Amino acid sequence: MYFELLGPVRCLRGEEELDLGSPQQRLTLAALLLAGGRVVGSEQLIDIVWPDAPPKSAVNVVRQYLSRLRAILGVEMIESVAGGYRCAGTTDVADFHRLLSEAAQAPVAEAHTLLHRALEYWRGEPLAGLPGAWAQGQRARLAETRLVALESRVDADLALGRHAEVIAELSTLHAAHPMRERLSGQLMLALKRAGRQAEAVAVYTDTRLLLAEEFGVDPSAELAAVYQQIIADRPIIAAGAAGLRPAQLPAGVPDFTGRPDVVRDLVEQLQVGTDTMPVVGVSGPGGIGKSTLAIHVAHAVRENFPDGQLYANLRSGDLAPQEVLAGFLRALGYADRQIPPALPERAALLRSLLADKRVLVVLDDVADSGQVEPLLPGSATCAVIITSRVRPAGIAGARLTILDLLPADEGLQLLGRVIGPARVMAEPQAAADLVKACGGLPLAVRIVAARLAARPSMRLEALAVRLADAQRRINELKAGQETVASCFALGYEQLPPEQARAFRLLALAEGPDLPVEAAAAMLDVALVEAEELCEALVDASLLETVAPGRYHYHDLLRLYGRSLAGGEEQAAASQRIFEHYMAGIRGVCRVVLPGFVHPAGTGRPELSFSGAPAARAWMRAEQANAAATIASSGREGLLGEVPLLAEVTGVAEVEDAIFLPAVLLAMGLGAQRMSATDEAITLLSEALAQVDARAHPKLSAMIHALLAMALADDDSITDARRHAEQGLKLGRLAGDPHSLGVNQMALGIVCFRAGELDQAAEHLLVSAETYRQGGLPLRAAWPANRLMLVYLAAGRPKDAVAVGEEAIPMAEAMHDPLLAGRMLARLGQAWEQLGDTQQARRRRTEAATVLLPYQLMD
Fold it and tell me: Could you tell me the pTM of the whole model?
């Protein structure tokens, strides 16, 4: 089935022409076909068929058109997709553009043949008989493309010495388009070569007068140069002469893989035909595939720019705009002696030469907008693609695409296209490990693939093992002279000293992301300066922003940055971020564990939080970063924190091996007291995984107890009971009253949550007695707090009052106002049950006074 649009709209099935129905129905089909396989929305179809005032039934009418077309063409020809419809039929328009594209890269003789074949597809006015403004706009666009193809074919005729044969055709074309300077130049050239110099001069004179009368402008520098050479009787070599259509695009990568959405968006953005010149920018870190993508897209749209394609790699500022302009002017036919010496004149001449031309300009690896501005054409018929490691700002009308990392499936696809799918299928896990080690960076995947392609017998697993070692991964990612490190170095070496220092030091941070507050601590600078440095690194594509005020390194960039840091600055920065997170943990303890932080203070800095919600928010955001930072810290940073952790954990000797689980325990306890059950379970589970129960039974018993309480609050009764019982066993093994008491309390809480009130009361009473007999009488207030809840639930308010009156002074003696405040609130409930509203009101008022500063009212 073949569709013809370059004339009346027709569909041929073999030799048979199908009846496509009414003009509006054929218009609907043409809109789908000219979309070239892209989706056309229902609203867009309505606008095409009824540009002025669509009827209320427009949606249904369009559906009827499509239904009838499916009946004529076959259901499979028109596909319904999300948001609209798609038709991927073969058309004469596509064949026409394909031949133009082939001609643009072919030698002159072959190009002439291809262009002649392309023009044979035209059967008259395109989309003839179709109504509406959209069809008229498409006719104008297609007619312009045909005229450009005719001009290109005439160029080939002139290059092949057929000037006498084309004079008549050129005269007719020039008469129809008298202000089209390319045709004027071609006719002047043909007449000059035919010995008709006076007529050639007359063509120029007529064109100059017409341009002055109609627009008040002079002929372009290109046409003026042809004229000057005619009157000087010199051979014509200026731009626009035959054979001087530039085609400078580098070859595309044959195994280009992935990014279909990005490619489609860029191709759409590069469509010319509006009042403004399309300028698209592609930004991202080194190795992300900017240049490969830009060249791939440039080849995809090349047929839309039949007057040529200009390309320059500016090497991040090493190549000056003045040099680039000289190269472009040479490509357009100017000899060195004809190129102006100054930058402004060169830029002006380029704009003149490209006026009304359809030329694509690709500027690869630019450093800033200052490099770009002199190189931009001035005509809306041209288009520009820019790639840059930085995010170029200040280029009017530019649309920026920031490249993401390559998804894992596309990384595997790329690996398979280079080394062969059979090797990937033979070792699927090793292939996945290799792609993961490359962190989604296309350059890294290509380097790995190149190494494997050069070693057909090498197992993928062998290279995956080498790349699994993070310390050597950067050095392993090299193939010949191409390395990931050298690619990153190009970006790093352009940074000012303060940004370079920030890049090195911030790469030392552990954890999934980096908040700006931690960055300020690492860099030892003010918060505002830290944010400016981080944002500068984001602009340089060396750091990513994951949320306002939070940043993240690509894995390979992090490894590269760490390789640059010196020993002394590395140690100092690591110590500063450790102290930052410990200050946060101390601040959390100050809010929710005041009994463990003596009112006189710890003697070490701490963050200040306005209340429990702020402390909880900090812990929720920073728990993973804090844990990762503490896990990587050296002994010197740990020693000063032992007194606080000894109080929280009940373990006097907090040695290096249990420092991390002790900190996680402190954070988990804080989360539990703030009713942040999910965070508490996560932190305590991680703490339990980090400690050896046989070597440290006391700490392990404490973690089991707190985890049991958190799970009970989460109604995970079976798991909670298991942890409490395991904690009891470890407490007995350690012979430690605190370990026994806290797990007996945990078991009581589990029974309470399970509705086993008698057993709950029994376990809590045993816990209180264990603390008293173990020389820790004040800590009996902890199970007393929970026992009050049991008595209230069992309808024993008098017993709840008795327990509370005895335990509240104990909580106050431990400097634990949170515990005291909660028991006061429960006393209020007990008095309410007893019918004493005055006592109930008094106790609740006391509770509110105590709890208000912590914003933790029950």
Answer: 0.59
